[in-house]
Amino acid sequence: MTATTSLQRRIRDDLVAAGGSERAVQQQAYMHSALPYAGVARPELRRLQRDWFAEVGFADVQAWQAAIRQLWHGARFREEWYVAISLAQHRRFRGWATSADALPLYRELIENGAWWDVVDEISQHLVGAVLAADPDVADTMRAWSMADQLWVRRSAILSQERHRTLDEQLLAEVIENNLTGSPFGEEFFIRKAIGWALRSHSKHGPEAAAWVRRFVDEHAEQLSPLSIREARKYL
């Protein structure tokens, strides 16, 4: 048995022991998830993760990525997806996690997860961290914003959502690629992401707010009412 398989079994056993059937049913219904939940509350999941990750180590980046993939694709409970994401975010592996070489892994998880809870966490905290560490990744985000899959596009839009200082030209381009009339421009999750990205930037000072105001005014005919409402929330 490999170390990752042993860890995976321990995680699953602990989730079952800590879970609750009533909570699991409620969580699955709320998230419209085909993958069941064990029913573990987030605070308890974080506590368990501290135990699971206390002595976890990998020989190299390939082993780290393989472990994340195994936890993700072998999941029986949705919480195992959350654990895989947390392993990717762990401070011990930050050097690997913020390398552009991690982007194919993140895209794989985004395409496979294909729902807002996992996509947004990966986009804002993992993809966003890569972009912050390597501005050249902006071209990859431009490509993602024109992907054939809605959730990859959403990831590109949200990739700077946690950045206080961001590339406004990149933000404009990834949004413009997803306005009304684009392949996914009518989709709620794209329109919501556009509004959130603009709203977040508007909170970063008067100049950022002025930029968002101009962008909304200049694109008012192509932005959905939902996107405009979210973008103007703090203006």
Automatic annotation (TrEMBL):
Query: One Pfam annotation, family name?
Result: DNA_alkylation
Give the source's domain of life in one word: Bacteria
Q: Which InterPro entries match?
A: ARM-type_fold (IPR016024), DNA_alkylation (IPR014825)
Q: Which SUPFAM superfamilies match?
A: ARM repeat (SSF48371)
Name of the protein this chain belongs to: 3-methyladenine DNA glycosylase AlkD
